Amino acid sequence: MIEFDHVSKVYPNGTVGLRDINLTIKEGELVVIVGLSGAGKSTFLRSINRLNEISSGEIRVGGQSVTRAAGRQLRLIRRDIGMVFQNFNLIKRQNVLSNVLSGRVGYHSTLRTMLGWFPKPDVAIALEALNRVNIREKAYIRADQLSGGQQQRVSIARALAQEARVILADEPVASLDPLTTRQVMDDLKRINREMNITTVINLHFIDLAREYATRIIGLRAGEVVFDGTPEEATDEA
Ligand code: ADP
Ligand code: ADP
């Protein structure tokens, strides 16, 4: 589903973000990327949908080159990829339903959807997505009235409404308390299983990675220093 072929990233100031990464993430995997701050986790994740341009190599998603895609082709690849961020990236002053519907911008290129007005079937899809993360009853509440955990579930619902086949989550629980962290990780795991959505999550807690991942990739200074199952990920590794 996601292929890295000799991928390197050097930032303009000379900092190495990624160094010759070669790996394949299969459909339905739940991969957790672990590593210390500065290891390259964020660079790795953001390269996949080209929020970040790589310096050399090639990345493919669903067999299609992200690296060489442009215009409409890139938009179509990006539609398959839902992003979940540490700070949720919701539109604070809009309600939950509108936020989830924003995942469907790009499905219609009409002025209406750009203004935030969607056909009824889209609203049904958005409500179903909210149902999956158990916050359907919050649909008409303003996003900034929700707790952090609820906001993160809204952002997961937005990815579902987008009908993404891949979810990329960049430190999705970094600003949440331990209990809420579990709820959000449980949601991501459940969605990964039930909908076979390929999921890549950046975390800096190895214990959470062991608990939730089907595969753990360890980064250090932009290089893969571990790639294996949670069982293989001992503290020595
Ligand atoms: P992580 O997500 O594991 O904390 P990052 O991918 O954010 O790591 O960063 C990897 C390396 O690239 C770090 O050394 C970081 O300082 C550097 N880096 C990240 N973004 C930039 C940037 N825009 N310009 C220069 N260096 C950057
Ligand atoms: P009103 O628009 O009068 O506030 P509605 O019940 O029609 O009341 O909508 C409440 C909110 O639900 C709106 O602010 C909007 O964000 C969202 N909403 C409802 N239906 C749609 C739709 N078809 N397309 C986009 N957003 C919708």
From TrEMBL:
Keyword Transmembrane: no
Pfam families, per the entry: ABC_tran
Domain ABC transporter residues, every copy: 2-237
The keyword ATP-binding is assigned to this record: yes
GO MF assignments: ATP binding
Keyword vocabulary terms for this entry: ATP-binding, Cell membrane, Membrane, Nucleotide-binding, Phosphonate transport, Translocase, Transport
Superkingdom of origin organism: Bacteria
Protein name, entry field: Phosphonates import ATP-binding protein PhnC
Gene source species: Paenibacillus cineris
